[in-house]
Write a structure and sequence with these properties.
Layout (H helix, E strand, L loop, with lengths): L1 E5 L8 H4 L8 E2 L2 E2 H10 L5 E6 L3 H10 L6 E6 L6 H8 L1 H4 L5 E5 L2 E3 L3 H10 L4 E6 L5 E5 L5 E6 L4 E4 L8 E11 L3 H4 L8 H8 L5 E5 L5 E3 L3 H8 L1
Helix pairs in contact: 4-8
């Protein structure tokens, strides 16, 4: 199985730490975020990785070399000239995505007990082009689903804004994205956007013609490591 680890973010919420290092190399109890994700995914059968880089990208390259790439096949997607956001990063990974098997996409700043194998089985059994790992938790931004957990929209509650797959719905289920999702290889051919863009825009477009479902994760551990406070909570 292949996985893309999104590691190119600027880490602006960790600005005091990320002045001197990329977010992917920020440590959580002495282990970098990137190492935690790689080891977790490799333990569940992922053998090929693509890691995108931008801010202090050479540090990530040097880190992987020093670790002998953890004995795994790890490629670099270099965005040091232009940060492509969560959507553009997937488009740039087109050559890596080719094949017959689903590809996992995982944010580097997420620590979780999500079962990748259970997620994969759900993805295959529902014949999805994309399966989005979601949780029932508080946030300002939610993905919106119908009763069958098909993606129908997105909202920023703080701004009071909505985006819909089709017509607006009065009844929907709000679930928070967990920073982990699966795509089938043909997903890349359905993307209309170019350059730097959010993957959410592609999800909403593609959901008009293909099945994109939510996978509700109820595992005990899930942490967004985007701030120093959240890192401290995860360490506890």
């Amino acid at each position: 199985m292949k996985a893309i680890i999104l590691s190119a973010g600027l880490g602006t919420r960790l600005k005091e730490i990320t002045k001197t290092k990329p977010k992917a190399l920020v440590e959580v109890k002495g282990v970098t975020m990137l190492e935690r994700v790689i080891l977790k995914l490799s333990s569940e059968g992922v053998t090929e990785f693509l890691v995108n880089i931008h801010h202090k990208g050479q540090d990530i390259i040097d880190f992987l070399i020093a670790k002998n790439h953890f004995g795994l096949n790890i490629k670099i997607s270099d965005e040091r000239d232009q940060l492509l956001n969560t959507g553009g990063a997937i488009l740039k990974a087109e050559d890596f995505i080719v094949g017959n098997d689903p590809i996992l996409v995982h944010n580097v700043d997420i620590v979780s007990d999500v079962s990748i194998n259970d997620l994969l089985e759900y993805h295959k059994s529902n014949d999805c082009i994309a399966t989005l790992c979601v949780r029932e938790r508080y946030t300002n931004r939610y993905l919106l689903f119908d009763n069958d957990i098909n993606l129908i929209g997105w909202t920023n509650q703080k701004a009071g804004s909505f985006k819909w797959v089709g017509h607006s719905a009065e009844v929907y289920k709000k679930l928070a994205f967990s920073g982990i999702y699966l795509i089938s290889p043909d997903f890349i051919n359905k993307i209309k956007q170019k350059g730097e863009f959010s993957i959410i825009d592609s999800w909403l477009d593609i959901a008009k013609i293909e099945t994109i479902k939510g996978y509700i994760d109820n595992s005990n551990v899930w942490h967004d490591l985007g701030t120093s406070e959240r890192i401290k909570n995860a360490e506890k």
